[in-house]
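Appendix B. One record, verbatim.
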Amino acid sequence: MIDLDYLAFLENILTENRKANFLKVLENRTKHFTVAVEDVYQMHNTSAVMRSCEVFGIQELNVIEQRFGKRIDKEIALGAQKWVDINRFDSVSGCLSDLKSKGYQIIATTPHEKDCMLEDFDITKPSALFFGTEKEGLSKEIMDNADGFLKIPMVGFTESLNISVSAAIIIQSLTNRLRRSDIDWKLTEEEILVKRLLWAKNSIKDVKRIEERYYQDNPR
């Protein structure tokens, strides 16, 4: 349960423009789609995927670190890690289980012939969009557990795109279609309050000291 008095206290420290920007951005955030990246060796690609999630309104990024254990490159993410929720998993099975328990269908992005073309993808169902490694693509475990497959239409000789480019194209296309639809895709009021509190804390220097002072003056 959000402490609304504490939220109001923190937001009072922020500028009116900052608070207005938070509300504007949150109005376009969604968990209807979520993104998952599997064992991406070149971590700058995961950071770039995170930036695409942030820019196009995807609130959660799921990172499977089963093999390489890489960390987000903050320079390439350019601060996006402050605004996108990152769920980390040390196994494919753990990630799949978590996402399925939240009601997501598992969608593998691959260049196979049987895949659904991007423009034909059914956006009505909550979907977890999986992107694989640069060299090997998605693992057999994910492919075997996928509820569907998604393909970007291409007309050149090249058969695949860099993961960060693929993610940007797919996320932009699907979120644009989502916002034009009558699907209930927005964050709930409670989710928005949670993000307002977290983003306020992320925006204030020495917030731990301020928090301690607040609860000293306002014991629960």
